[in-house]
Amino acid sequence: MATAPATPESPVAALLAALPPGLATADPEALAPHLLDWRGQKRGVAHLLARPRTTAEVVALVRAAHAHGAALVPQGGNTGLVGGSVPEPAPERPTILVSMQRMARIRAVDAAGLCLVAEAGAILAHVHEAAREAGTMFPLSLGAKGSATIGGLVSTNAGGTQVLRHGTMRNLVLGLEAVLPDGTVLDQLTPLRKDTAGYDVKQLLIGAEGTLGIVTAAALRLVPLPAASAVAWVGVADLAAALALLGRLRQAVGERVESFELVPADGLALVLAHLPGARPPLAEPAPLNCLVELTDADAGAPLADRLASALADALAAGEILDGTLAGTGAQAQALWALRESLPVAEKADGPSLKNDVAVAVADVPAFDSAARAAFARAFPGARPLVFGHLGDGNLHWNLRAPAGADASDWLARHGPAARRLLHDTVVGFGGTISAEHGIGTAKAAELARLGDPGRLAAMRAIKAALDPADILNPGKLFA
Ligand code: FAD
Ligand code: ZN
Question: Cα Rg for the chain, rounded, in angstroms?
């Protein structure tokens, strides 16, 4: 690609002048909201904000970035939790924040073919609505669904609360359109159910955190809209009991277990304190709570009865302490709100160290005990807040400072060592330091320290081959 030298005095102005009119602005006020991450912990630096409306405009951005030695940082809803969507300071290099929010069209919904094509900036909640209107469901949901976008979800290989049954984003993308770092358009949007013609390049972009291409649209797998569902909130004494319940439910209803989420007593207390109108679901608080949802496409499936009888058996066997079944859709929603509001309540409570680890499901109780013992020794008083997608072995094993400590100061002093301790423990169990949020900048040093050397070498080789000028999201993933 030809390189047009920018004048050293004003490389940013030269870059802006080279872009199609109206595509980008240098207005600091327009940029500001895009530069602070969701946690409010990382402020980035960019010179220009670009808001493309078409794939052709994204191509123009990539070409201009090449010509001017600029960096491009793709951003969707900016709800990522690892600093990936916020640009690193690069004083020598013009940086363009590429907000995909204007490319938000749902291009097609094919109910018979169970496929929906959405542009990268489409918000997850809108995709849910469009799928539902067609009598189908897009089976991926998470607490940030009102802001998170398809491009961000693809690029972080997002998980959420239905992975147990439907898999992560990787399982739900049937086709992808993206602009590669040299300006080539990857046009793999046709929703083929089978395609063995060479490397699956679209899978490389899923979970690449914007380092290998800018996703412009995705063809997503839909499932028939569940016609029956049953939701219960169940109190248990410990993680082993929670997993016994999961096993019992699977015996009873097989793959109809759609979600199996964990909310601890201290997490529920935070939600009750911060969520207006929230009420405790059980008469007596339990040490741990499981939020269970069963679904079936068959409207006649007796799911509530099956769930009630499985819970009665579990109670009789001493596996669970208590439970409540949602009797109406509104009650089910209220129970889900308790789970989904947990990250927001945690944020309102003050800064904490956010983690996103996973081990094999059967190893969860032993891993959690080992991590708690290690933290009690190394960081007495620090308060783990452990919740999340228990059915997937994926726990947000977060850490709050000791009660009464200045949380920001404590985390600044102990956060890095605490994170290393948790990650060493998880790797000791053969687990992963990132199950669903990705690496970004928050975990780049830890990936370099603990990642499999073979995988890391292959990742570097792929990045160097596709993006030799390091135009796309520099400073992310790799320490
Ligand atoms: P952003 O935050 O804007 O970007 C995330 C990454 O993707 C960045 O590296 C960015 O550069 C890149 N990117 C964005 N758009 C594009 C594009 N079009 N092309 C290329 N790269 C792009 N995540 C889960 O997996 N499971 C959960 O349960 C979950 N719960 C959450 C709950 C809350 C309350 C919050 C705030 C976040 C939660 N997250 C969860 C994290 C977050 O919502 C997801 O990571 C989501 O996928 C980010 O989408 P986004 O559009 O906001 O992406
Ligand atoms: Zn999660």
Answer: 23
